[in-house]
């Protein structure tokens, strides 16, 4: 799977990394050369393959200037020649492309039950991927697991962990950059401690980014899913936890403290017996009554037996089980009230449902949710659709955003060589 086009879209402004700081390494006398090389590299990246005349026409740079930039980038190991393109009057022009092995991005989706990982080269081809049940009951166990997985992925690609340019970790909750911890992530015990996230940097030794998983899923949707070309939409994850990624005017919106979209804490579900549980305050009202665990607990309270997972309840509802059907009705009511608030405040064009529940219950949820919203909001409700990315939404967002930053990183690191 190639993400080159996706990355070029993101580079134009959707995802703006907060944790990766790209510093200028060129001297003042070489700033123009660096700018020229970045412009040429960006166009080769966007086009896939390009010739010197083509790049001169696109960038507005002279052919000699483009030739110097191409030579420097080739010497730095970032570009390579890949043949000739026939031109007018029998002339042929050398074609250049980005060297895929010039950089690698590790994407990690850290959930309570599963961890999903993928490794992509610099042009966005996934060279290895793996997922397995999470061993994250303790953060050191999870770090050990992720380190092993990174080793396995790198080995499959014929590289080492040291060759990874950037690692992007998608997690629940909020990354507190001041003390290096996670807030509002009760499903990941231990990560709320000061400097706990620094352990992630030890996995590859590379530059790393920690992003909210729902935000990354929204990036994935915006670049490869239902959100492509949609300027205002939200991605709502309904699973072990609850989260929402928000895209406003084509850009990811994080909020003042990075907490935008923490919808698990919406005051929805007042009066539900599940709110009497000791953990309800920590998890938030909405998450307590509408998450996957809540679906199972509600079905059991209504007399259903044998349901161990939310999928069991949903399957039983499809089969006509009365308790399961009533559980789904309550889920729709909770979701409808939460989405009514989202629609009233953000006015999205599209609501994308994902997560273990949202991504696998479209036939049970979307139609009734639209009807419910029609009763709750004054304006015509937005489209509600189930994500087409499934469990890969977070990984795809992490890869796409990571590739954007990795492109700058490899250019930044090569700058001393290209400005001699």
Main features:
15 strands, 3 domains, Putative NBD/HSP70 family sugar kinase, Nucleotidyltransferase, domain 5, Arc Repressor Mutant, subunit A, five-stranded mixed beta sheet, 20% strand, kinase, kinase activity, single chain, 420 residues, alpha/beta
- Number-wise, the strands total 15
Termini Cα gap: 36 Å
Largest sheet: 5 strands, mixed
Instruction: Give the strand content.
Output: 15-25%
Average of pLDDT: 86
Using only C-alpha atoms, the radius of gyration works out to: 24 Å
Instruction: Provide a count of the helices.
Output: 15
Molecular structure report:
GO terms for molecular function: kinase activity. This is Putative NBD/HSP70 family sugar kinase. With 420 residues, this protein is an alpha/beta fold. Helix content is 44%, strand content 20%. The protein has helices at 4-14, 31-47, 52-59, 63-75, 139-157, 198-204, 213-224, 280-283, 285-290, 292-301, 310-318, 322-346, 355-358, 362-376, 393-418; strands spanning 50-51, 79-86, 92-98, 104-110, 114-121, 126-133, 166-171, 174-176, 181-183, 207-212, 233-238, 242-248, 251-253, 350-354, 383-386. It has a 5-stranded mixed beta sheet with strand order 6-5-4-7-10, with helices on both faces. Strands 13-12-11-14-15 form a 5-stranded mixed beta sheet, sandwiched between helices. Helix 2 crosses helix 4 (63-75) and helix 3 crosses helix 4 (63-75).
